[in-house]
Amino acid sequence: MNEPISVDIPHKLGLAVARARIEKGIGKLASFVPGGAVTEHRWEGDTLVFTVEAIGQRVASRLDVMETRIHATFDLPPMLRLFAGKIRDKLTESGGKLLK
Question: How many CB atoms are located within 10 Å of the residue 64 CB?
Fold first, then answer.
């Protein structure tokens, strides 16, 4: 099994503000997976655990929110691993948009 995609997204908002902005923009989380939609989400402390569904596949995902960064992890099923590079690139390039 391949490693999940993991990306750190730096920010200067502090923990509470970053968490609030993520909560407000939960719909944006699916944009990192082509054709994706967030179907489930829950907070476990300062970690948002969520599921993105795309082309009949489920992507287990999480955002660990910290004081100066967010650690995003997407565990892609085999069919979506073809898009791993594109998903990683999109997270790296525009991950900060999650916080706006």
Answer: 17
Burial degree of 52 (CB within 10 A; 0-12, 13-18, 19+): buried
In this structure, which CATH number among 3.30.70, 2.60.40, 3.30.9, 3.30.160 belongs to the domain 5-95?
3.30.160
CA 86/CA 17 separation, integer angstroms: 28
Distance CA 94, CA 97 (A): 6
∠ CA 89-95-99 to the nearest 5 degrees? 175
For residue 15 the two structure tokens come to 């923990």
Nearest to 49 by CA among 58, 69, 77: 58
Residues (pLDDT < 70) of the chain are 1
Would you state the pLDDT for residue 68?
Answer: 96
What are the pLDDT digits (tens) for 71-89?
Answer: 999 999 988 888 888 888 8
